[in-house]
Specification:
It is built from 17 helices and eleven strands. The chain is an alpha+beta fold and 591 residues long. A hairpin with a 6-residue loop joins strand 6 and strand 7. Helix 2 packs across helix 11, helix 6 crosses helix 7 and helix 12 packs parallel to helix 14. The protein is elongated.
Length: 591
């Protein structure tokens, strides 16, 4: 990790006595504040960020001395906590990430340094590529030696893979970051030694002048981990890539790898401001309007208040300095002081950090314990570890909620699929296709088993969220495989099968009626001529009617296999045929 360790110092900035007229102006509210911030900048080293701005406001003019006392205690408390998390939290995450990155680079370089393709080399190459991607967000925080080790690993990996151009670019960056590294210490494989020599010949071509500018101007810039200077800078640099790191109060640190050959001789860098600056200002304005609303005008005729007395040059300079400190700080502790009855006072306000806004509202005694009371309030308000714990708890609750919603979504999709499959299975069985019915039922059983696993995972969310997430992830993966099959089965044309089955039933009913008509005709021919002719004529007429009904039905079925009119014609023919059959059976039986 970089040796640029911050050493915050809290300063108590005092203002001269305030005129009563100045209290009538909005600017006087800032003058009442006492701003504390910390910065430590040794010559030739990188600056630290601001630590915390403290602003204490009296509710009324009579509480001014009380506000000064509370401010002094707050500043002394923060002064005695040089290593408090208020300053540390901004670097903790980067520090841990850098330590993990350093371990992965060392392990990857060990595997790559074999100089030959193998399973171990492939693992090392994959690890060094992953470290390269992670380093992009940390270049502003990383030590130059760590970055050099990273690019040494990249150079060796590309050399083994036969990518000579990239290998030379990476080795040049390594040499610019560690120009004193001896040749034999790079590696003993001839492939790496030859790469080292090739880059050294290129570096012998001489330096090139580069101009570095920044937005905003006057930012401290470090090249290859060396001496820092304020932009704009003119530097004479050797060929190859260089590590450029920039830092300014109120902005995020940043790092870049820039090459005069690829990026030209004019490098412009724009810093990204810390978002909390705007949040500080907005929050402060809201707190002022909530805790210190303007007094109500007196009843009767309104009088225009006299304009505030102009600020002196010294007061104006101090005001601008206080505002600058306030807006560039990492955190803001804002407190409003109000005298209460019974020898106590109320502190109301908020602690504003990049995590969020955390309210303060407490009643403390105004006796010998006031110092300890205020100190406890300040320490509790600025306890970012506690705030992070609270936010982590909220994040955990949101995580559990998201997991539960995910489980419910999976369960709902699977329950819907299972129900639809079972309905279709019964349908296929109805239309006389048992094999398809079995296929649908078996798939529904698979979905049911998977749904049961989702229900089990959901029951573990509260006690074992990580295990439940892994189980749900596995279920979701399996559902992605099973769901297309479910959709494909449900897309089968069951309604078409129903229509085909109905058409088949109607045609079978027609064929049966036609066959029965033929048997009735045979029965008619067996009758003796002694049967009454009028009766025979009536039966022949009925046969003709049945024939006509069936012929009409046949014509309709050819146009529409599901014709309702055809079904009615068939039913009519069947009724007439049944009646005629009974008469014939009676006559034939009585001969």
């Amino acid at each position: 990790m970089s040796a640029r360790i911050p050493c915050p110092r809290i300063e108590n900035v005092r203002f001269p006595a305030l005129r009563v007229a100045a209290l009538q102006g909005a600017a006087a509210l800032f003058l009442l504040g006492i701003v504390g911030s910390g910065v430590c900048l040794a010559q030739g080293s990188a600056p630290s960020r601001k630590t915390v701005a403290v602003q204490v406001m009296p509710a009324v003019e009579q509480d001014g001395e009380l506000a000064v006392q509370v401010t002094k205690i707050a500043l002394d408390t923060l002064e005695n906590q040089r290593n408090m998390v208020t300053r540390r939290y901004l670097a903790d995450k980067d520090t841990r990430a850098a330590e993990e990155l350093a371990k992965s680079i060392v392990e990857a370089n060990r595997k790559i340094s074999t100089g030959a393709r193998s399973t171990v080399f492939d693992q090392g190459n994959e690890e060094i590529q992953g470290a390269y991607l992670r380093s992009k967000e940390l270049l502003g925080e990383l030590d130059a030696k760590l970055v050099a080790d990273l690019y040494l690993g990249l150079a060796m990996a590309k050399a083994v893979l036969g990518e000579a151009g990239l290998a030379q670019e990476y080795m040049a960056i390594f040499r610019n970051l560690l120009p004193d590294r001896a040749r034999q210490s790079v590696g003993y494989a001839k492939l790496f030694l030859d790469l080292f020599d090739t880059v050294e010949k290129t570096r012998a071509a001489g330096k090139k002048r580069v101009t570095v500018t920044t937005e905003p101007a006057g930012v401290l810039v470090g090249i290859d981990g060396g001496t820092w200077g304020k932009s704009p800078l003119q530097l004479d640099l050797l060929p190859g890539g260089h590590l450029v790191q920039v830092e300014e109060e109120g902005y995020y640190r940043a790092g870049y790898i820039k090459d005069p050959k690829l990026d030209g001789d004019k490098w412009k860098i724009t810093l990204r401001p810390i978002e909390s600056r705007t949040r500080f200002l907005d929050t402060r304005n809201r707190l002022l309007s909530s805790y210190f609303p303007p007094p109500a005008p007196p009843p009767g005729k309104k009088k225009t208040p006299p304009p505030p007395a102009p600020l002196s040059a010294d007061e104006s300079e101090r005001l601008l300095s206080a505002l600058s400190e306030l807006l560039s700080a990492d955190c803001l502790l804002f407190l409003g002081v109000t005298s209460e009855g019974g020898g106590s006072m109320r502190l109301r306000g908020a602690f504003v950090s990049t995590f969020g806004v955390f309210p303060v509202d407490t009643l403390v005694a105004r006796d010998l314990k006031v110092i300890e009371s205020v100190r406890a309030v300040v320490m509790e308000a600025s306890d970012l570890e506690r705030q992070k714990t609270q936010l982590a708890q909220l994040a955990g609750e949101k995580k559990l909620s998201r997991l539960s919603a995910w489980a419910d979504e999976l369960q709902g999709a699977m329950a819907s699929g299972e129900g639809n499959l079972m309905d279709r299975a019964r349908g296929w069985k109805t239309v006389g296709q048992p094999q398809k019915a079995e296929l649908f039922a078996a798939t529904a059983a698979d979905v049911s088993v998977l749904k049961g696993r989702v229900l089990t995972a959901r029951g573990r969310i509260a006690a074992e969220p990580d295990a439940a997430r892994d189980a749900l992830d596995l279920c979701a993966t399996e559902w992605k495989v099973l769901e297309p099959k479910v959709r494909s089965l449900l897309a089968w044309d069951l309604e078409g099968a129903f229509r085909a089955r109905q058409a088949k039933d109607i045609r079978e009913m027609y064929d049966s009626a036609r066959s029965r008509l033929d048997s009735v005709r045979k029965m008619r021919t067996e009758l003796r001529t002694s049967v009454d002719k009028n009766e025979l004529k009536d039966m022949d007429k009925q046969l003709g009617t049945v024939e006509k009904s069936l012929n009409d039905a046949d014509g309709l079925l050819r146009k529409d296999p599901l014709s309702a009119e055809a079904k009615r014609q068939i039913y009519r023919a069947v009724l007439l045929e049944t009646e005629l059959r009974r008469r014939l059976e009676f006559l034939l039986g009585g001969r």
